[in-house]
Specification:
Length: 462
């Protein structure tokens, strides 16, 4: 399995990619670099940026939101953390990871350092997502594996995403990719314990650290480090370790299924909300019911959400002191979506409404209940069944199985995606610079000889 994935990574060419995968890769690029822009201004990003800038090193790769460059692994780590701490990036539900923040930032950092062009960057981005998401999905193929995994956080696959993206740009051979995957397997980590109330500031660092470790894995493999040949599938390997020794044959099959035929990079959720992916279906359903039936806020008696056990137990924080906690609160997310009536809830909306009295009042009327039938499909799907009851006895109910922004089923409307980009870029870029960034990535990235124009465009406006 390790060897097969390494062979896929080493052999994949830009000409092998369908045009639809290339188009999605450009979208992921815009989505992540703009998320990192707003993320770089959040309190969670301050410590990461400060520590890495103090450490210094070879100034070879851009830091989004900063004026100095860092070594490529450090830059990838900082930028991935900035994108992820917004909780407004993307998600691959089957694999329980957010691959875009690793793929884009690792590919960008390494491409800058080696002078790679647009095609090589996009190829690396796609390759990282394809391999990393399959490894992530291998951990999530049975309910037993989900239960066993409950002690680890959701970014274990990031290390592999970044290692493959970096490895493509560093020109790793098949044997070197075998080593890089093994090195990455020893580095992947994360703990859900740090999420127990209230969520601490370390959770997005799982994404940043694992991304940086993935770039280092590729660099170490290039320098000659080895890591055996069965790090993923071995009896004491990555999959057995992170499924508590309960891995079924289907786990190993999933890691290889669809290579060259099924493009996972076309199947991500591009988030419309700064909220856990587990809550998006419920937010969409609740907002639709209230707006469609023109229910006034004062008329809402309860909003009952039947959902998976994890959401009911872990994602219903009601004491919301800051943005960091708000992204893990289903009641806050539903109240915000209803009050604003907007299909987007980026970090700026959260911050603007943290102390809003109407939000707090509506939050108190949101109730989440574990539904055993919904919990059975946890990980494979994240449906929600929502009922709105009014003070005068009306009752409206809707079930949402697929959230808005889930590709290819419910893609974002182009104007919604562009507005998301503009909202997230606003803390760093003037409107005219955002125009140029969108146009350059959409029209010129694929044929670009280097990524220096992109580096200039994502630098803060003077």
């Amino acid at each position: 399995m390790t060897r097969e994935l390494a062979a896929f990574a080493a052999g994949l060419r830009f000409e092998d990619l369908p045009s639809s995968a290339v188009a999605m890769a450009r979208m992921h690029t815009l989505n992540i670099v703009t998320a990192a822009m707003t993320g770089s201004t959040l309190p969670a990003a301050a410590s990461v940026l400060t520590v890495h800038l103090r450490a210094g090193g070879v100034p070879e790769s851009s830091v989004i939101g900063g004026e100095r460059r860092l070594p490529r692994a450090a830059a990838a780590a900082v930028n991935a953390h900035s994108a992820y701490c917004t909780m407004n990036d993307d998600s691959f539900m089957e694999g329980d990871l957010h691959p875009g923040h690793s793929a884009v930032t690792a590919a960008l950092a390494v491409a800058e350092s080696v002078g790679a062009g647009g095609k090589d960057f996009l190829l690396a981005l796609v390759a990282g997502i394809e391999v990393g998401c399959r490894i992530g999905a291998s951990l999530c193929q049975t309910q037993e594996s989900h239960k066993a995994r409950a002690g680890w956080h959701c970014n274990l696959g990031d290390t592999f995403v970044a290692a493959v993206a970096a490895g493509k740009l560093l020109g790793l051979s098949e044997d070197q990719f075998v080593a890089a995957l093994g090195i990455a397997a020893t580095a992947a980590a994360g703990l859900n314990e740090v999420m127990n109330p209230p969520p601490s500031l370390v959770w997005p660092w799982d994404g940043g650290r694992n991304t940086g470790q993935g770039v280092l894995a590729a660099e170490l493999a290039l320098a000659g480090m080895t890591a055996g040949t069965t790090a993923l599938e071995g009896h004491q390997g990555f999959i057995e370790m992170f499924t508590g020794g309960r891995a079924e044959p289907v786990a190993f099959d999933r890691a290889l299924r669809g290579l060259h035929a099924e493009w996972i990079s076309e199947q991500l959720l591009i988030k419309t909300r700064s909220a856990s992916v587990m809550t998006h279906s419920a937010i969409d359903a609740a907002q639709h019911l209230v707006l469609h039936h023109q229910v006034a806020l004062a008329e809402i008696e309860t909003i009952e959400v039947r959902t998976n056990r994890w959401t009911a137990e872990k994602l219903c924080h009601r004491d919301i002191p800051d943005f960091n906690v708000s992204v893990f609160s289903l009641p806050f997310a539903i109240a915000l979506a209803i009050l604003t009536g907007d299909r987007l809830s980026p970090p700026s909306s959260h911050q603007a409404y943290l102390d809003n009295v109407e939000i707090r009042s509506l939050m108190a009327r949101v109730v989440a209940i574990e539904d055993p039938e919904i919990d059975k499909v946890f990980g494979f799907s994240l449906p929600a069944d929502v009922t709105v009851r009014t003070t005068d006895g009306r009752r409206y109910r809707a079930r949402e199985d697929i959230p808005y922004g889930q590709y290819p089923h419910k893609p974002l409307d182009p104007e919604v995606f562009e507005r998301k980009l503009r909202l997230n870029a606003a803390p760093l870029l003037r409107a005219d610079r955002v125009d140029r960034l969108i146009d350059w990535v959409s029209d010129e990235l694929t044929s670009a000889r280097t990524l220096e124009p992109l580096a200039r465009l994502i630098a803060p406006s003077s």
